[in-house]
Amino acid sequence: MSATTHRGRIVDIPNKRIFPGILEVQDGKITAVREDAGVTEQSFLCPGFIDAHVHIESSMLTPPEFARIAVAHGTTGTVSDPHEIANVLGIDGVRYMQEQAARTPCKIHFGIPSCVPATNFETAGATMGPEAIEELCRDKSLLYLSEMMNFPGVIHRDPEVMKKLGIAKAHGKRIDGHAPGVRGDDLKAYVAAGIETDHECFRIDEAREKLSLGQKILIREGSAAKNFAELWPLLGEHPESCMLCSDDKHPDDLMEGHINLLCARAVAHGVPAFDVLRAACVNPVLHYGLRCGMLRPGDPADFIRLRDLSRFEVLETWIDGECVARDGKSLLPRSKSPRANRFHAGPKQPADFAVRAGAGMLRVIEALDGQIITGAGEAPPLVRDGFAVADPAQDVLKIAVVNRYADAPPAVAFVRGTGLKHGAIASSVAHDCHNIVAIGTSDEDLARAVNLLVANEGGISVAGPGNIDDVLPLPVAGLMSDGYAEDAAEGYARLTAKAKELGSTLHAPFMTLSFLALLVIPALKLSDLGLFDGTKFEFVPVFEDDPAAPQAG
């Protein structure tokens, strides 16, 4: 690789200096950083942006296509949890992501999924116990134990959970957390187990309490969970202990921007640029020991050229001395990826979604726009011929979760807050086990939306009146497209628009839908085994006065 020189205003984040200078690069490494008052180039040379916690699978893109788009926004590396594909394919899924990530120069650093499945209250495609954690911990390229979502297990010192934590510590791995709303003595017990980060804070006082106990806070702004507006003051209060992350970023949103957008928002709020860049470019590298450079002699030549430090417009992105994006356009080649999947559900009939009327009020999942937490409400049932049916006039719709790993009856409950007036939407992206989740205004529409996914072995779908029926196939684990980012983004945007034609009032209907089966996030969720109270960590009946609820199998 030939030597290159790069002139501009060099952003020295640790020393909070900006000076005219020259970067000298040889064989992918920075050989010198020289101050030179004669440099007149006004753009800024800065370390690249790092997404400190992202599930690449949620972009619906394989790693090469995710990276191809992300580098155009100045992202040179990620801290990526392959938890989603691991729930489908186990260790084979982790290896698939590693193999695909090796095809891109973007530095994607994977962790070791800690909770597969996240709970024993749902059906997953794989199980990863302590033996699997031990096997993966021997892989030095896997830098950390991914988010420990079983916070009740940590707090109450569940033996298997503690064994997993002990294995990670023995191998010197960092340990990521996931403790939404956990406070007080429970939080102290959680942190005392060695868990170092949290990206689930949705209140700033919660984040400050976690910071006071030594945790680092990852400020999250994704397609569904949007916590930046609440947490941004932490960047100025604790710049040494904050990072920026997306967690889950759908393809159309990724086309618009990545961590660069959060930097611009933070500076617009008055956060000093050096504090923002410390969180965006430096803290993740230091905390996780990433392979990304930080603009120092001897570092990999990973850096970006910015027009300014307010809008953070990315002019160039360089990784290992190679220019991978220029003027907002990726220079990386488009690529398709091989398929890998586990999908065994059969077609469903409308009668499979019928709910016989029970005693008392309905328990209703309250979907919250821009949040992955849900509320737990109630509503009077609309009963016809002895069956409880969807009531679109009151925004009380049916929600179903269908086991995709075996042909089994759906679990059906009720949800409010999506706004659908007609039809149904469905997705095989359903955290964390990725069974099929669907919401509909009728049993017939639910069956059609689900069967579109069954026919394609995964994806997102819309069913409704007229010619609205449509599907975006996701044949890689039922989570990702095997094709190009632009096509996935167009398909996702098209189906999102159709969901809104059906009445959905959600900013990202499919992203919100995907979290309604996430049992480890309070309060009320649905798995393929039944309605689940995430605050008590137990199943509950759909009707409040019914005595029976399923038990964990």
Can you walk me through this structure?
This protein is α+β, with helices and mostly antiparallel strands and 553 residues long. It contains 16 helices and 30 strands. The protein has an eight-stranded mixed beta sheet, with helices on one face. Strands 19-18-23-22-25-24-26-27 form an eight-stranded mixed beta sheet. A three-stranded parallel beta sheet has the order 5-6-7. A hairpin with a 2-residue loop joins strand 28 and strand 29 (530-533). Helix 2 (83-89) crosses helix 3 (91-101). The protein is globular, with a radius of gyration of 23 Å. 59% of the residues are buried. The mean pLDDT is 96.
Secondary structure: elements and pairs:
Layout: E1 4-12, E2 17-26, E3 29-35, E4 44-47, E5 49-54, H1 63-70, E6 75-80, H2 83-89, H3 91-101, E7 107-110, H4 130-137, E8 144-148, H5 151-155, H6 159-170, E9 174-177, H7 184-192, E10 197-198, H8 204-212, E11 216-220, H9 228-231, H10 234-237, E12 242-245, H11 251-256, H12 259-268, H13 273-288, E13 303-306, E14 314-319, E15 322-326, E16 329-330, E17 355-356, E18 362-367, E19 374-379, E20 382-384, E21 387-389, E22 396-402, E23 411-416, E24 424-427, E25 436-440, H14 443-456, E26 459-463, E27 470-473, H15 485-501, H16 509-514, E28 524-527, E29 530-533, E30 538-539
Parallel strand pairs: 1-4, 5-6, 6-7, 8-9, 10-11, 11-12, 18-23
Antiparallel strand pairs: 1-2, 2-3, 4-13, 13-14, 14-15, 15-16, 17-21, 18-19, 20-21, 22-23, 22-25, 24-25, 24-26, 26-27, 28-29, 29-30
